[in-house]
Amino acid sequence: MSELRELYQQIILDHNKSPRNYGRLADANRASEGHNPLCGDRLRVFLRLEDDVIRELSFEGSGCAISRASASLMTVALKGKTVGEAEQLFGHFQRMVTSPPEAAVDHDRLGKLAVFAGVREFPMRVKCATLAWHTAKAALAGEQTTVSTE
After folding, report:
1. Is there a domain that residue 149 lies in?
2. Per the structure, how many domains does the chain have?
3. Domain that holds residue 39
4. CATH for 125
5. Which pLDDT does position 38 carry in this prediction?
6. Is residue 105 in some structural domain?
7. Are 15 and 69 within 8 A, CB to CB?
8. Which of 79, 73, 121, 65 is nearest to 93 (CA)?
9. Around 122, how many Cα atoms within 13 Å sit in the side-chain half-sphere?
10. Contacts 24+ apart (CB under 8 A), 96-102
């Protein structure tokens, strides 16, 4: 199990150091801002929604490694999904990170997102891992208020 944990840490560090889809999306038609006051994470999610499909999405901002890696992996996972599929994935991700530490992880459904199962052992880190997701969900809904993890 320690080899798996090490692999998960490597994936998180890689996505923190070289986040995918980082930067302002010029032709975004939805955007939302998120803030985690406990950790200081602050990010903005941009997406281009066409015909109920997330064609493009990106993020920018600053935060801890968990927050940035989660945003990076989220953008990869949601690109090309319908709004319904994105909402389902949000639900699966949210359940995974808020489940008891010993709960099984659905690797088939979550793919690389399963790397965040370890945050269940650190409740304060759950907010870091879910900030981008709550922010993307608000953007999909067209909400203009700042999302807060508090």
Report:
1. no
2. 1
3. 2-141
4. 3.90.1010.10
5. 86
6. yes
7. yes
8. 73
9. 10
10. 96/120, 97/126, 97/129, 97/130, 98/126
Average pLDDT over residues 80-103: 96
* Enclosing H/E stretch for 138: helix 123-140
In a domain, 93, yes or no: yes
Instruction: Kindly report the backbone phi and psi dihedral angles of residue 44, in degrees, each rounded to the nearest multiple of 5, phi listed first.
Output: -130, 135
**150: pLDDT confidence band, cut at 50, 70 and 90?**
confident
Note the pLDDT of residue 4: 60
CA distance 14 to 2: 18
Whether the pLDDT of residue 59 is over 60: the answer is yes
Q: Nearest 5°: CA angle at 99, between 43 and 114? A: 60
Lowest mean pLDDT among 20-24, 72-76, 106-110: 106-110
Nearest of 107, 105, 147 to residue 130 by alpha carbon = 147
Predicted confidence band of residue 39 (pLDDT cuts 50, 70, 90): confident
- Among positive and negative, which fits the CA dihedral 73, 145, 29, 27? negative
Least Cα distance to 31 among 108, 148, 145, 150 occurs for 145
Measure Cα distances from 114 to 5, 28, 30, 119, 146 in Å.
11, 28, 27, 10, 27
